[in-house]
Design goal:
Blueprint (H helix, E strand, L loop, with lengths): L1 H26 L9 E3 L12 E3 L25 E2 L50 E3 L4 E7 L13 E5 L10 H5 L2 E5 L15 E7 L7 E10 L5 E10 L3
The chain binds 2-acetamido-2-deoxy-beta-D-glucopyranose.
Keywords: Signal
Protein name: Chitin-binding type-4 domain-containing protein
């Protein structure tokens, strides 16, 4: 009797810890948390909530749904992982439709009109973040959570930022984005690295091309974790004349 109870209890514990390990592994992936991060004090920049604020987001980004770094365990999650097949990630869907991929993400398809992805609420009734507004040559600072992958023993894989043509009527293919990468950012550029390595805030700053015409541009954030393992987030930038 005692042994049966014990083994049942330890079996339950084992299963519980396996589920924990598996789900943590499955969820520890990154995504663009903010497209237009502004530092409170540009002379003392940091990516933590207390030192800045976000002025523009990815499509249908639920504000205040979760703490920073925790939207990969949202329902649906934010870490869209592109398909490995078809024949490879460079040919797979560029922005999540919430259905395809190794790990389908949240719905990041283009809004109709584009602004519809930045107003009102998402499918679960949660208020979504505003669209990014900038200008030709404008600086953007993009933020993401480290998700344990910015520690020294992890390979540093870049984040690529790519743009569409002006005023596209549909999302570029992945190959089209790859032909217009405007910058590579250092994934491990994190600040406030004392706490839990999962929630280190990281990011990179860059300038939009000065030659952009006013209009909407789709911007893709893309991060490589393993050789064929890519995660993307998509946002629209409203570029206004200077
Ligand atoms: C790295 O992060 C800091 C903030 O901690 C930021 O000021 C800087 O621009 C970032 N570097 C690059 C190259 O993006």
């Amino acid at each position: 009797m005692f042994f049966t109870t014990l083994s049942k209890a330890s079996l339950a514990l084992l299963v519980a810890s396996m589920i924990l390990v598996l789900t943590q592994k499955a969820e520890a992936h990154s995504y663009a948390d903010c497209i237009d991060w502004r530092f409170k004090d540009p002379k003392n920049p940091s990516w933590s909530d207390k030192n800045g604020a976000c002025f523009g987001y990815a499509r249908r980004f639920p504000l205040k749904a979760k703490l920073f770094a925790k939207l990969d365990s949202d329902d649906p999650n934010r870490h869209y992982q592109q398909s490995h097949k078809n024949p490879d990630p460079d040919h797979s869907l560029a922005c999540s439709d919430g259905k395809q991929g190794e790990e389908p993400g949240a719905d990041e398809t283009m809004g109709k009109p584009i602004s519809a992805a930045y107003t009102g609420t998402d499918k679960r009734g949660r208020k979504v973040g505003p669209q990014t507004v900038s200008k030709p040559g404008g600086q953007l600072c993009v933020r993401w959570p480290a998700k344990n992958h910015a520690v020294p023993d992890e390979k540093n894989q870049p984040v690529t930022i790519a743009l569409s043509e002006v005023n596209p009527t549909k999302d570029p293919t992945q190959l089209q984005f790859l032909s217009n990468i405007i910058t590579n950012l250092n994934y491990k550029n994190c600040s406030d690295t004392k706490l839990n390595t999962d929630i280190w805030p990281c990011g990179g700053c860059f300038k939009l091309p000065t030659t952009l015409k006013p209009g909407n541009f789709v911007m893709q954030w893309r991060w490589k974790l393993n050789s064929n393992e890519w995660y993307t987030s998509c946002a629209d930038i409203d570029v206004r004349a200077k």
